[in-house]
Structure formats: C-alpha cells, structure tokens
Amino acid sequence: MNNKIPMTLRGKERLDSELKDLIQVQRPAVIKAIEEARSHGDLSENADYDAAKERQGFIEARIGEIQHKLAMAEVIDPSKLQSDRVVFGATVLLEDCELGKEIQYQIVGADESDVKKGLLSVMSPLARGLIGKRKGDVVEVVSPSGAKGYEIIDFHFK
How much of the chain exceeds pLDDT 90, in percent? Predict the structure, then answer.
C-alpha cells in the first residue's frame, strides 16, 4: 500500500521554507515571549503567557505536520515527466463544454492547490477525472451545482 503524499518540487520547496522559518525564527521568538511573560509574575492571570503558550502549541503542531508530510512525500518534478496521458504534475488546457471557455490547471498536491492561480488539487473531483485521460477526451465532473463537461484540448509538463 502506497501511503506517499504526491507533491511537486515547488510544493516541497515551499514546505521546506516554512519549516525553516518555524524552527529558526518563530520557535525562538515564542520561547523568548514565554520567558518574558513568566518574568511578569503570577501566571494564572497572565494573558501574554497564555497567548505565547498557545502560539507555541500551534508552532510545534505545524512543525510536526510539515515534517510528517515531508517524510511521506513523493516529490515529482513535472519537467522530467513524459506521458501520452494526463498524470500528476501535468498542466492541462481544458474547454468548458457548456461555456466554450478555455481554462488551464496544473494538477498538484493537496497542500499546493490554489484554484485562482490555476493549481488544482490531485484530490479534487476534476483532477481525479482528468488523471489517465488523453488529449481530446471529454471528462464529466459531478459537483453540487450539477454535472459539467470538459474537453482536454492539450496538456504538457513544465
């Protein structure tokens, strides 16, 4: 059973950068804030201490989450892919069959997705429908607003 989490090289670099910031900048800053709040005396009525401890909990949880994702990551460099079918990492040019409008998405890991920037989560219904299809295929996606058809105009790997 493959429990790997697919992500692009760009997605891994973004997580690496966030992890570095959390460990080297945010963690030391919150430790300093806790020490400062402790120096003010009675901790039972110290809002600064409570806020700093809560922030520390968030930072430590996020560090653990990122480390887990990186440990489980299957990093894929789309520029090194070649396929005659749509696969993870592909940038797909689609035509909305109803509106006749073209849209373009890159299929990326769940943490990287941002539909407004054209980054579509591999877990989304549209991406799941696209995986394994070829140029010219029509994909039908059922969403809460109803079924929608998309034709694959082209796809590439960059």
Answer: 77
